[in-house]
Amino acid sequence: MPLQTPEITKREVISAGGTLSLIDGLIHDAGHAVSEASKEYGWYNVSTLKEPYRIEGKKTMGYEIFEQYGFHLPNVILYPTGGGVGLIGIYKAFLELKTLGWIANDATLPRLVAVQSETCAPIVKAYEQRKSHADVWENAETIAFGINVPKAIGDFLVLEAIYETNGCALAVSDEELLAEQKQVAEREGNWICPEGGATFAAAKKLRQSGWIQEDEHVLCLNTGMGIKYPDTVTYHDEDYLKHSLTIKHD
Predict the structure, then answer these.
(1) Does residue 92 have a pLDDT over 70?
(2) How far apart are CA 250 and CA 74, in angstroms?
(3) Assigned domain for 168 exists
(4) How many domains are contained in the chain?
(5) Which parts of 1-146 are beta strand (E)?
(6) Which of 7-11, 115-119, 179-183, 242-246 has the lowest mean pLDDT?
(7) Model's pTM, two decimal places?
(8) Mind spelling out the 3-state secondary structure of the chain?
């Protein structure tokens, strides 16, 4: 995995007894290294879109959304998009629901929104140019590690899902996604990951622009725990010591 992977994620690998190799690069560089090693050592490569099972697993999100909405679907779904497999899987689930007859063939599917960082937004750029593939994003860097993917292998599938559902792709700044991460923790008691914060920031922008209407049902998907990103919250001991409680004993 990339050298800049969150520290807790690295430690999880070691804890589980895995062999950790760090790559001085981004996630696509790590994927390339695994691909080359798989050829050399005969390993089975389970990287993104190198096998079918990840999409089948991600697809279950689409079924669960359908179930939890009382066998209906929301109007808009926002997903933090790096490799984009989650968005691809959700779209696949909705198409299967139509095939199964659980959703009418002429039913309007939720508008799917791919959310990226302004400093790594290849899907957004491709969407704005109405392309079917995305170019490599140079010098990609964002605090939201999970969406720091300069070139998604399945970019054409992500873009197809967006186009076919009349969705869109939108980028937000790291400052915006961190602000939303903090607000969700304060208001909902959920410490979500920065990637999840990006979807809330994007939803706010789309509502302000009128792309999302007041009466529409909107789903923002969070893909991880904020506890894996402790560096997204900073404080100074001296500031909090000023507000320490004094406990008096009788």
Answers:
(1) yes
(2) 58
(3) yes
(4) 2
(5) 76-80, 111-117
(6) 242-246
(7) 0.90
(8) CECCCCHHHHHHHHHCCCCCCCECCCHHHHHHHHHHHHHHHCCCCCCCCCCCHHHHHHHHHHHHHHHHCCCCCCCEEEEECCCCHHHHHHHHHHHHHHHHCCCCCCCCCCEEEEEEECCECHHHHHHHCCCCCCCCCCCCCCCCHHHCCCCCCCHHHHHHHHHHCCCEEEEECHHHHHHHHHHHHHHHCCCECHHHHHHHHHHHHHHHHCCCCCCCCEEECCCCEHHHCHHHCCCCHHHHHCCCCCCCCC
- Do 198 and 111 fall within a single domain? yes
Q: Are residues 33 and 144 in the same domain?
A: no
Whether residue 49 lies inside any domain: the answer is no
Q: Would you give the distance in Å from CA 121 to the centre of its chain?
A: 12
Confidence of residue 231 (pLDDT cuts 50, 70, 90): confident
Domain of residue 207, residue span: 54-232
Same domain, 226 and 111: yes
Tell me: do 97 and 199 sit in the same domain: yes
At position 227, the amino acid (one-letter code) is I
